Amino acid sequence: MLEDVVEARSEGDHRLWVRFEDGVEGVVDLSGRLEFAGVFEPLRDPREFARVRVEGSSISVL
Q1: Rounded to an integer, what distance in angstroms lies between the CA atom of residue 25 and that of residue 34?
Q2: Parallel, antiparallel, or unpaired: how do β-strands 15-20 and 52-55 relate?
Q3: Which of 3, 25, 30, 38 places its Cα 20 to 30 Å from the Cα of 54?
Q4: How many domains does the chain have?
């Protein structure tokens, strides 16, 4: 079963700190995992990436 994301914040350099509803938390480095093309192109800009927030049970960018 997948746990819902309850908190997330940018740690800079395309890294996210996330905490799940079961208390598990940690930093995920997305720099080598995301292809910044198409709809993800704006996330190449660290200022845009830093606008991360939790929406429902997933992570989004305003």
Answers
A1: 20
A2: unpaired
A3: 38
A4: 1
